[in-house]
Amino acid sequence: MSHEDFPTENPAVVTCGLPYANGDLHIGHLRGYIGADAFNRTLQTLGQDSIYVCGSDMHGTPVAVNAEQQGVDPEDFALEWHDQYEETFPKFNVDFDNYGHTHDETNTELTQEIVRTLDDEGYIYEKEIQVAYDPDADQYLPDRYVEGTCPYCGEKARGDECDEGCQRHLEPGEVEDPTSTITGNPAEYRERTHKFFEVSAFADFLTDFLDGLEGTSNARNQPRQWIEDGLQDWCITRDMDWGIDYPHGDDDSAGDDLVLYVWVDAPIEYIASSKQYAERDGTDAFDWEQVWKGDGEIVHIIGRDIIQHHTIFWPAMLEGAGYNKPRGVAATGFITINGKGLSTSRNRAIWAKEYLDEGFHPDLLRYYLTTTGGLQQDVDFSWDAFQETVNGELVGTVGNFWYRSLLFAYRNYEGTPETTVSEEVRERIEAAIDEVREGVNDYSMRGVGQAATRLAQFGNEYIQRNEPWKLTDDDPDRAAQVIRDCVQIAKAVAVLLEPITPDKAQALWAQIGEDGEIADAHLEDALEAPPRSFDEPGELFEKIEDDRVAELTAKLEERVATAAADDEGTETESDDTTGDEAAAMTATEDLEPLLEDRIGFGDFQDLDIRVGRIEAAEGIEGADDLARLEVDIGFETRQVVAGIKQLHDLDELPGTRCVLLANMEPAELFGVESNGMILAAGDDADLLTTHGDAALGEKIQ
RNA sequence: AGCGGGAUGGGAUAGCCAGGAGAUUCCGGCGGGCUCAUAACCCGCAGACCGGUAGUUCAAAUCUACCUCCCGCUACCA
């Protein structure tokens, strides 16, 4: 089964994975939301009737537990994050038609209705399983909140997985000597009746479904294997208070305290949010039931960690409840920072708020995140690469073309020259429009962005090749023609780039004197003549300077290093299987506290630290600790005095590599001049050295 | 362990699904041009035997098998 290309006659719904109401947003999240936003905007420029909806994921154990730890109601806790998200998205031009949350009435009702239908259709059954229970806290413990001993390898294990030992998946009830991670007390097992959704009944359906599924290849291929391995039924209830209650039937004795597993109600928010939009907007404007129950185009853009939820559980639920299934699932890759995995606990991340606080325009990040790699690829973020993209493509190619064309047009014609677009340019723009169409149909936002950038590139080449500045006097007609073409290209670039950089495209739109919103423009408008006159244009993108990048990079690295140092302290704790926490605590307490005062990168740069090699070492007469060293730092050999006499065997030092602060003020100690400072750690003067091939004299940076 | 994704000039990235002239684009390097423009822009050059091995084919970066190295997933952890 293959789908008709976008745009279709049907309404479309685009969604992104729901943010889990439990923490700050970072660029890893943003990548998905921005990608989906750009996808939706592109569909709209194609003329597709399309909306973009999402909502906060409010339920689940992490929210419940974190709220409890803070002594607040889980709803209040989650709503606080929800509010923050809702405020943040517009700042990145992520324009949801509706943004709800899973705890609201619409979602609650819809979820219960769907579950009831699945129950009525016979897809849900009860089964007794062993569930850990904390008698002191008087509550059942979802798997992750139980720790104990792995029955297979004897290592410490979590309730669901032997994460430190044999990696085995553990069924409920398997962990030995269970303790509650909430109270630390021993837990006991109790038999509980839970509800299971018969996913296994949908194997054939899912196989067919995957055959026709559009999107990224990983979202199609991975689930196939799971189906082949045999689908297991899905436990869809939890022993918790926080969540959506299992809908009770009259004869139902089981699910008293049961709420639905968070992954049941989370994707239903896609439907609920669409419904809220339609009801707010009037069903005439958008028919949510057509999309979800009739002929509609449903596209989910998600992270690749939640593929199975969207390609197995979710379509099975939809099928079982008589709903329409997604047309496409696009699973994005991850974001890495400077080549290493993003880690929120280690503070290795670029936070949404942080990015904005640094004063960067959201469109820069939008462009970077959507065009740096394919949707499916992992994308590395570094301030260096960010600068390169912004300065090279947005400033140099797009911005410069926009500005030079419009400025020339303004100065010589006070707007658009009165002539028609040349055939060559019209065809080039049409080709770019086709590239956008192909891009979105291939779920390639990169392709969409590049179609626009390449058109700007053509514009630069075109204006250069025709040199209108030479023609204004010699051949005014020809000059007018060329500039007319350039203004058209500038307008076309704006239309094509709108899905990626909506703000900047709008600014250009205004500069060429167009009324209204460029977001309402269609691709074909790229070929429509711009208004006759416009005002003097301004520059839309500005360069990011090198020292700014250096500053940001240093800031990030310092932060990660600080977090890593903290982490090491805690890691010692958890790695220590004998559980000697007291020792670890003491070790940390002995350390000098970290300085609160931060220094700028400039301050760091003031330190000239070099790689050196100790050539000679001898004690200084009359001094207890001081030694006179000769250190080769490439350019020269320095004499330095260091307080390491009693801590090292001086005879063994020559030949040792070391690290020297070279621009230390000279000092005289015991009559010996010291011309630098050897770096060493702690009271034991553990000498710092290098571990690679750094040449003598190389700067530490 | 199984599975998924990746491995392309110094760096980064496209092409692979629909196999065909020694391969895209960006950054960097070298040389040139232009001066309308944000020291921008345009042109040219150098540079990769497309992770390894073996196949299929007239023809493979593109298909098949095996292998190596990264990243990730394996469902009652959102």
TrEMBL record:
Top-level class of the enzyme under EC nomenclature: ligase
Gene3D superfamilies: HUPs, Isoleucyl-tRNA Synthetase, Domain 1, Methionyl-tRNA synthetase, Zn-domain, Nucleic acid-binding proteins
Lineage: Archaea, Methanobacteriati, Methanobacteriota, Stenosarchaea group, Halobacteria
Reaction catalysis annotation: tRNA(Met) + L-methionine + ATP = L-methionyl-tRNA(Met) + AMP + diphosphate
A GO molecular function held by the record: metal ion binding
Start and end residues of each TRNA-binding domain: 603-701
Family in the record: Belongs to the class-I aminoacyl-tRNA synthetase family. MetG type 1 subfamily.
UniProt entry tagged with the keyword Aminoacyl-tRNA synthetase: yes
Name of the protein this chain belongs to: Methionine--tRNA ligase
UniProt KW Acyltransferase keyword: no
Function according to Swiss-Prot or TrEMBL: Is required not only for elongation of protein synthesis but also for the initiation of all mRNA translation through initiator tRNA(fMet) aminoacylation.
Keywords: Aminoacyl-tRNA synthetase, ATP-binding, Cytoplasm, Ligase, Metal-binding, Nucleotide-binding, Protein biosynthesis, RNA-binding, tRNA-binding, Zinc
Cellular component terms per the entry's GO annotation: aminoacyl-tRNA synthetase multienzyme complex; cytosol
Positions bound to Zn(2+): 150, 153, 162, 166
GO process terms (BP): methionyl-tRNA aminoacylation
Source species, domain of life: Archaea
Coiled coil regions in record: none
Motif ('HIGH' region) on chain: 19-29
Main location: cytoplasm
Cofactor details (free text): Binds 1 zinc ion per subunit.
PANTHER family in the record: METHIONINE--TRNA LIGASE, METHIONINE--TRNA LIGASE, CYTOPLASMIC
Amino acids binding ATP: 344
UniProt cross-references to SUPFAM superfamilies, sorted A to Z: Anticodon-binding domain of a subclass of class I aminoacyl-tRNA synthetases, Methionyl-tRNA synthetase (MetRS), Zn-domain, Nucleic acid-binding proteins, Nucleotidylyl transferase
Cellular location(s): Cytoplasm
EC number: 6.1.1.10
